[in-house]
């Protein structure tokens, strides 16, 4: 039974748990955390099971209620969806382990509804990834967006305002997507992605299709925070509580990227969007501007979380550029970067959270080298993450950039190559700035005796539940970097759509 | 030309509402007015979908013995309506979350005017 239904299990389990948490944990708050752990662990196990099954038997279709598509809704497990699903669920599990002490510490957060919202958001993510139906995707998009607004708004004093701003932009974005679905449905008469894929080639000359594509790309561009639509992102990530920003930064924008890949390459077809409409060129140029803009803005930030948020804008640009290059190497780079960026950003945001827990702030200019003595493991994890963001070889960050660079060379788009190389240098500037403070800057004090107080240098690491996920992520950065050929050859090569 | 405007009046109305809604959401300074803009925008999409499925001389999609099964041109496509039922629910949920956020903003900053709000936020950021 499990094997035939496993495609649909992850969203359903997460949804079921999200609804039952407020009921079960009403009296005893500690149960909420364990229920979240159970739900996410099960979804990680199912995701692993799914990915191996997909590799063995190929694409799996699950028809809800036995209704055959295009009439019924189907879930599709192909290499792309099972891979992204696994990445998101694993990251969510690690971040939620980290949240055990943090959620209780951050004042004002009520842990029971918070965890219910987290599971609802993950349910939305899994649904978006697995669904093979255009309208179903809209519903899941709204489920995860609405829970994201809630998760962001419980942070600092400014958080509700940034969540509200995100809500205005996000609601317009998903409405644009819905409008695009409307246009597509008017012309094709179907909402099933595979069905639409077979009908659309006969309608390539219809202006309605072009309108539909543009609206959908704008909608997902807003969710993905591609350059001109990134306005909501820095505030939302900065003021959100640690767990929210560590959950949303690695996963939330990747969902937009995934949906973009799915719609552009698997619904409309590669040749049409790249050769006839040139919509991928637009995407690539916008992403290139975003890469440089995000890096420059990140350099000028004082607050670590805000710096990481701007760096997210620039890293999303890499994914957008990989999609926009529209060749196999670019797509491999983009999909690999979805995984890599998820790991790196989760690691870095968790480190920023750990600093906030112990120091009470994460202001870069207030950091000094005693933090290295106080929290050696956290700082080591930050160093690995930072090196990976810059793209130093054995780490994962290097390899996705490598594939992107190969993609630009294959298209002979030298401007993009230059953008990629320059942005690596800019990344180096803003991360080495932090590393310099953490490792080399002696503690500044007016009172010289304070320097020699042993307590200032005493080891004061965060609790193990907050430390272990960070270390696992840091190790994964190196291990997955070394294993990247296995991932690329084993899974990502199989994702490349026909005709690319 | 007249046909182009009158023949598609449902769509023109939807487009008008859409522009109104977007204008409200972008230009209005009051947060509640922004939300009204968003609501109008979402409603315009609902009207767009419903207009797309309307048909002259057709009836509700319930089996009628006089028309028969094969004559599908005499029935209205029910799918856009059912999709829009879901979209209405989603819109209501969005509004609920948005009003909760507005309440929490008002409790913290004692204002709903964006320019005042930004000033007070700036004061917070400087500290």
Description of the structure:
The complex is a heterodimer of chains A (500) and B (127). Helix content of chain A is 78%, strand content 2%. Chain A is mainly alpha-helical and 500 residues long. Chain A has a domain at 278-500. Chain B is built from 5 helices and no strands. Chain B has helices spanning 2-6, 9-27, 31-52, 79-109, 114-126. The chains are: A mainly alpha (500), B mainly alpha (127). The interface between A and B is medium-sized, with 25 and 32 residues.
Please render the helix and strand layout as text.
The complex is a heterodimer of chains A (500) and B (127).
Chain A: H1 2-24, H2 30-57, E1 60-63, E2 74-77, H3 79-105, H4 111-130, H5 134-153, H6 159-188, H7 193-199, H8 207-224, H9 233-239, H10 242-268, H11 270-276, H12 279-299, H13 304-325, H14 328-359, H15 370-374, H16 376-390, H17 396-410, H18 414-439, H19 448-451, H20 454-457, H21 464-482, H22 484-495
Antiparallel strand pairs in A: 1-2
Helix pairs in contact in A: 1-2, 1-4, 2-3, 2-4, 3-4, 3-10, 3-14, 3-21, 4-5, 4-10, 5-6, 6-8, 6-9, 7-10, 8-10, 9-10, 9-13, 10-13, 10-14, 12-13, 12-18, 13-14, 13-17, 13-18, 14-16, 14-17, 14-21, 16-18, 16-21, 17-18, 17-21
Chain B: H1 2-6, H2 9-27, H3 31-52, H4 79-109, H5 114-126
Helix pairs in contact in B: 2-3, 3-4
């Amino acid at each position: 039974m499990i094997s035939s239904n496993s495609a649909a299990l992850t969203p359903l389990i997460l949804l079921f748990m999200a609804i039952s948490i407020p009921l079960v944990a009403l009296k005893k708050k500690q149960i909420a955390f364990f229920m979240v752990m159970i739900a996410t662990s099960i979804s990680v196990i199912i995701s692993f099971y799914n990915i191996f099954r997909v590799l063995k038997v190929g694409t799996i279709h699950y028809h809800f209620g036995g209704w055959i598509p295009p009439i019924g809704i189907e879930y599709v497990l192909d290499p792309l969806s099972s891979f992204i699903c696994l990445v998101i669920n694993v990251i969510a599990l690690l971040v939620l382990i980290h949240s055990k002490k943090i959620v209780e510490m951050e004042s004002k957060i009520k842990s029971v509804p918070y965890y219910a919202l987290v599971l609802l958001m993950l349910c939305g993510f899994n649904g978006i990834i697995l669904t093979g139906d255009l309208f179903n995707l809209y519903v899941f998009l709204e489920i995860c967006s609405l829970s994201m607004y809630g998760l962001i708004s419980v942070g600092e004093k400014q958080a509700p305002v940034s969540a509200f701003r995100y809500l205005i932009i996000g609601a317009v974005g998903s409405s644009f997507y819905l409008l695009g679905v409307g246009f597509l449905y008017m012309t094709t008469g179907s909402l099933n992605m595979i069905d639409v894929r077979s009908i659309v080639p006969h309608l390539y000359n219809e202006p309605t299709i072009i309108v539909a594509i543009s609206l959908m790309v704008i909608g997902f561009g807003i969710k993905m925070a591609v350059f001109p639509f990134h306005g909501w992102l820095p505030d939302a990530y900065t003021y959100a509580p640690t767990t929210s920003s560590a959950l949303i930064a690695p996963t939330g924008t990747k969902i937009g990227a995934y949906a973009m890949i799915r719609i552009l390459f698997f619904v409309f077809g590669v040749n049409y969007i790249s050769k006839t409409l040139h919509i991928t060129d637009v995407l690539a140029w916008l992403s290139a501007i975003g890469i440089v803009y995000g890096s420059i803005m990140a350099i000028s930030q004082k607050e670590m979380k805000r710096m990481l948020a701007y760096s997210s804008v620039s890293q999303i640009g890499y994914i957008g550029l990989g999609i926009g290059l529209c060749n196999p190497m670019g797509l491999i780079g983009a999909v690999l970067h979805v995984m890599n960026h998820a790991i790196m950003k989760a690691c870095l945001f968790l480190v920023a959270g750990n600093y906030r827990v112990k120091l009470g702030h994460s202001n870069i200019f207030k950091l000094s080298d005693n933090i290295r003595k106080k929290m050696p493991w956290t700082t080591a994890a930050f160093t690995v993450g930072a090196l990976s963001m810059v793209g130093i070889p054995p780490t994962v960050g290097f390899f996705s950039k490598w594939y992107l660079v190969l993609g630009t060379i294959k298209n002979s788009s030298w401007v993009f190559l230059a953008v990629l190389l320059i942005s690596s240098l800019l990344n180096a500037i803003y991360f080495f700035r932090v590393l310099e403070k953490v490792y080399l800057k002696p503690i500044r004090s007016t009172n010289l005796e304070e320097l020699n107080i042993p307590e200032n240098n005493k080891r004061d690491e965060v609790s193990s539940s907050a430390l272990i996920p960070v270390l696992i992520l840091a190790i994964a950065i190196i291990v997955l970097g070394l294993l990247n050929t296995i991932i690329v050859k084993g899974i990502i090569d199989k994702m490349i759509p026909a005709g690319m | 030309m007249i046909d182009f405007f009158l023949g598609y009046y449902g769509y023109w109305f939807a487009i008008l509402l859409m522009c109104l809604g977007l204008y409200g959401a972008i230009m209005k300074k009051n947060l509640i007015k922004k939300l009204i803009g968003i609501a109008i925008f979402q409603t315009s999409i609902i009207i767009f979908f419903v207009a797309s499925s309307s048909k002259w001389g057709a009836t509700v999609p319930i089996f009628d013995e006089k028309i028969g099964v094969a004559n599908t041109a005499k029935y209205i496509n029910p799918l856009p309506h059912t999709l829009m039922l879901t979209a209405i629910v989603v819109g209501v949920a969005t509004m609920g979350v948005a009003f909760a956020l507005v309440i929490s903003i008002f409790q913290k900053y004692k204002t709903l005017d964006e320019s005042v709000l930004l000033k007070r936020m700036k004061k917070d950021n400087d500290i």
